[in-house]
Amino acid sequence: MTDIAGRAIQAENMLRQRDLARMKWIAAGLLAFAACLYVLGRALAWGYLAAFAEAAMIGALADWFAVVALFRHPLGVPIPHTAIITRNKRSIANSLADFVVVQFLSAEVIAERLKRFDAARHLSQWLPGNREKVAAYLNKAIGYGVRALDDRRIHDFIAQAARNKLQKIDLSVFMANGLELVTRNQRHRKILHGGLNRFADYVENPDNTEKISAFIKGWSDNSFVQSMIEPFVPTIRSAVVNKLRAAADDETNGLYLEFDEQVRNYVSRLQQDTELQEWVTNQKNAWLNHPEFGHQIESLWSQFRDWVVLDLSHPESVIAGKVESMVGELELYLAGDEELRAWLNDQIQAALIRVADANKGQVGDLIREEFGNWDDKYMVNQLELYLGRDLQYIRINGTLVGGLFGLLIYTVTMMITGS
After folding, report:
1. Of 99, 144, 131, the residue nearest 371 (C-alpha)
2. DSSP state of 192
3. Which bin fits 185, alpha (ψ -120 to 50), beta or left (φ > 0)?
4. Closest to 348 measured CA to CA, from 103, 123, 99
5. Cβ–Cβ contacts within 10 Å for residue 391, how many?
6. How many whole angstroms separate alpha carbon 240 and alpha carbon 200?
7. Which pairs from 187-195 meet CB under 8 Å and 24+ separation?
8. Which DSSP string corresponds to 313-337?
9. CA–CA distance, 311 with 21 (Å, rounded to integer)
10. Distance between CA 286 and CA 274 in Å, rounded?
11. Average pLDDT value over all residues in the chain
């Protein structure tokens, strides 16, 4: 409970306490006034006044006894069948728990209430004027979420979870299946084709002239031979480039056939060679158990977190735009699709019924336990605080109604006796 809510409840209880005290003084004042009238009626021999006052006092005292007997023993005397609430606390707790569970948490009640409420229709009517507000709340929730998860314990948990999942993967089988998928329909040849052309681009690039020239002249350590080779370097480069591009474009040459054989051989080894499989598994486990693995996971998460926080702080946020767009789409769908609204209502109803069925026993037990464990004095004070003001009207009414009935009885008696 927040401080504001706590202060509000405290202030409300103070008002109730003040009203209860005022009503008690009014009821007690009426009793005292009736007593004064009785004394006056007897002193002046006004029979009608004395009869009214006497009956009013009896009614006031009887109702005072009834009201007090609900909460405590009148005048502290343990009269039988008084202090009803405290004596029957467990029974009241059980009855209250059963009432809440049956009347509020049954599947029939929830289904009927939700059917009348039509949550999807209310949501579709509420969203148009609150789209930006909803999007803003969602953006704040996303930002808070990534910040809340920026914790060493979370990083360690994510790294350990990833490690556990990866350790269960047979990497040899995974690699073999991946290579088989790549080699299907000769798609793996695109790798060799691209590699040859990329190598040709590198050799042909003017920026690499000095490196290529040094490499070719490095075929010999003799300076005279190097000087003889140098004039032919451009020709050699051009020939190498042409050879590479021609080899890349001709998939019938032996290079592609050798590449096919090497890939097939490696797939077969991954599937059948236990030594290679063990080596792959050992390499995988060594990588997973290396501290750098955890650092990489943490680095990836940190980069993701920083990107989310930075993006949400930007006026043209990509995430905020996507979120608002999603809320807008939901608004349109709910407004125009009756089947979607019906589906959403069904899902809300089913979810609440499942939650209620799963937890209504615990709710009932919670009510029984909390109500039953309340201190008697505290429980009486709380109930009297909330109900006592209205109960004082019973005393007031008992005083007035008792007096009127006493007056009526006295009048009828006088008429019969002719006095």
Report:
1. 99
2. H
3. left
4. 123
5. 20
6. 8
7. 188/259, 188/260, 188/263, 189/251, 189/256, 189/259, 189/260, 192/248, 192/255, 192/256, 192/259, 193/248, 193/251
8. HSTT-HHHHHHHHHHHHHHHHHHH-
9. 59
10. 18
11. 79
For 96-136, how does the pLDDT look when each residue is reduced to its tens digit (9 = 90+)? 777 777 777 777 777 777 777 777 777 777 777 777 788 88
Encode pLDDT of 25-70 as tens digits.
Answer: 998 999 999 999 999 998 988 989 999 999 999 998 988 888 888 7
Residue with tokens 């799963």: 358
CB atoms within 10 A of CB 208: 14
Q: Give 178-229 pLDDT, tens digit per residue.
A: 777 777 767 777 877 888 888 888 878 888 777 777 777 676 666 766 677 6
Q: How many other C-beta atoms are found inside a 10 Å radius of the C-beta of residue 168? A: 7
- Amino acid, single-letter form, for residue 333: Y
Q: For residues 364 and 85, what is the distance between their CA atoms, to the nearest angstrom? A: 19
Torsion, Cα 315 316 317 319, to 10 degrees, reads 140
Which H/E stretch holds residue 209? helix 209-217
DSSP 3-state of 150 = coil
Sign (positive/negative) of CA torsion 208, 209, 211, 212? positive
Cβ 284 vs Cβ 270: under 8 Å:
no
> CA triplet 266, 267, 273: central angle to 5 degrees?
75
What would the two tokens of residue 362 be?
Answer: 């615990």
For residue 414, give Cα distances in angstroms to 51, 185, 419.
11, 120, 5
- Residue 311, H or E segment: helix 291-313
Q: Are 68 and 78 in contact (CB under 8 A)?
A: no
From the CA atom positions of the chain, what is the Rg in Å?
Answer: 45
Give the C-alpha separation, 13 to 286, whole Å.
66
Share of the chain residues as helix, strand and coil, in percent rounded to the nearest 5: 90, 0, 10
How many whole angstroms separate alpha carbon 109 and alpha carbon 102?
A: 8
CB atoms within 10 A of CB 144: 10
- The C-alpha atoms of residue 379 and residue 87 are separated, in whole angstroms, by 12
Got the DSSP string for 402-418? HHHHHHHHHHHHHHHHT
